[in-house]
Specification:
The protein is mainly alpha-helical and 230 residues long. It is built from 9 helices and 3 strands; from the N terminus they run E-H-E-E-H-H-H-H-H-H-H-H. It has helices spanning 15-25, 49-52, 67-80, 89-101, 106-114, 131-139, 152-164, 187-204, 209-220; strands at 2-6, 33-37, 43-47. A 3-stranded antiparallel β-sheet has the order 1-3-2. The longest helix has 18 residues, at 187-204.
């Protein structure tokens, strides 16, 4: 446990309220923080040590955009998947980097190498190893044009956005398909779903200096109602 004390010579200061505000400013839940008074007029705040340690990012679900991060992910991938031990490491990195750039995680890539897009397991055995088998499995997760399809986690996130917005889960199906009778989303739920969508877009889109420069150029030419023309 960590502990700090608050005291003041000003009797008008509400020390407990001050301690609560300090705890909330750090993002700590009130139930995880103990606030109490001692006989000397001090307020003592005790905090669980876990709140003071920054949680480590899950290696299976964090983004992999830098060359070093991609290298580490591929090392872990090859170490845990026996079918990749005959694959040239440079080729493994180059192919994996394409999927990571599309917003895939290491867990997504492991899933794709173990399952087809329809959920059926890929074949296993000594004959299903090496570069050609690696390329064949990843090809199933690409479009005919070679684009990367959404990963398992990306599809799950998209479905959560659709569900929270109150849209029918069969949205996008042919017109003759009977639509499910789902209620229309409330404004609060729709805003929350929109926030999820924006976070999903930011997570899977890498901002570059070119896009930032484009935003600056665009904003400079936007005409607002209050702008004067003279």
């Amino acid at each position: 446990m960590a502990e700090f004390r608050i005291s003041s010579d000003d009797s008008q200061v509400d020390l407990r309220r001050l301690a609560t505000a300090l705890a909330e400013s750090q993002g700590w839940a009130r139930e995880d923080v103990d606030i109490w008074d001692n006989r000397r007029g001090e307020v003592i705040v005790t905090i669980n040590d876990s709140l003071l340690r920054k949680p480590e990012a899950d290696p299976l679900h964090r983004p992999r955009h830098t060359p070093h991060a991609v290298h580490d992910a591929c090392e872990l991938l090859r170490r845990e998947d026996a079918s990749l031990r005959g694959v040239d490491f440079r080729y493994l990195k180059a192919e994996s980097a394409r999927f990571f750039s599309a917003g895939w995680t290491l867990a997504d890539l492991q899933h794709a190498l173990a399952h087809r897009p329809d959920g059926v397991d890929w074949e296993r055995g000594p004959e299903y190893r090496g570069t050609r088998w690696f390329a064949h499995r990843l090809a199933a997760w690409k479009t005919p044009d070679g684009d990367i399809r959404p990963s398992q986690s990306q599809e799950s996130a998209q479905l959560r956005v659709i569900s929270r917005a109150g849209l029918p889960m069969d949205i996008g199906l042919p017109e003759e398909t009977e639509l499910s009778a789902r209620p229309v989303a409330s404004p609060a739920v729709a805003r929350s779903a929109a926030d999820d969508a924006r976070r999903l877009i930011r997570q899977n889109t890498r901002t570059t200096t070119d896009t930032l420069a484009h935003q600056d150029r665009t904003s400079a030419h936007i005409k607002r109602a209050g702008d004067r023309t003279d």
